[in-house]
Amino acid sequence: MDTVDLRTPRLLLRPPGEGDVDAIAAACQDPVLQARVPVPVPYTRRSAVDFVRGYSAPRWASGAKCTWAIEAEGLFAGMIGVQILEGGRGEIGYWLAEEHRGRGLLTEAGARVVAFALDPAPEGLGLARLAWRAFSGNVASARVAQRLGFRFEGVARLGAVGRNGLEDDWLAGLLATDTRAPVPWAVLDPHA
What we know:
The protein is built from five helices and eight strands, in the order E-E-H-H-H-E-E-E-H-E-H-E-E. It has 192 residues and is of the alpha+beta class. The protein has a domain at 6-130: Aminopeptidase (3-Layer(aba) Sandwich), CATH 3.40.630. It has an eight-stranded mixed β-sheet with strand order 1-2-3-4-5-6-8-7, with helices on both faces. Strand 5, helix 4 (105-118) and strand 6 (129-135) form a beta-alpha-beta unit. The model has no long low-confidence stretch (mean pLDDT 95).
């Protein structure tokens, strides 16, 4: 698959490159990110080089995963991607560097990526369903998914491998036919 750049009013979403290596390595030193994202610990510059050269680029080429660096005001801000699964399905994942959180960048990037994933070809990937998952308790990631219109679908008990063994996973999904308006989630809005 050819790489695709995506734009929003504030962001450029583009495949990560060699120029992002130091910023990726720096961002992955954050203990919060390390607790919530399955990155190597310790995360070294070599880890970032391996990610850019050995993970991101080959998966774009094979059509297995679209991975974008999030660029805000000319600076690397984070990563977002869609793993492409069989049967018209995909799974979204994302993270932001600590200094870029709290500005709505991930929601903005996510909305553009969701549109690309679910819109019919040739404008998009034409997926029927996009899944989201995060370790139970990752409220920040869940709030982004909720704002993107994902529907909370439940908890996969001990469904993920975390740093200290098996952990519960929160699960949500968004169909191409769903509206992308936010809906209440039981784990985030217990009184809604």
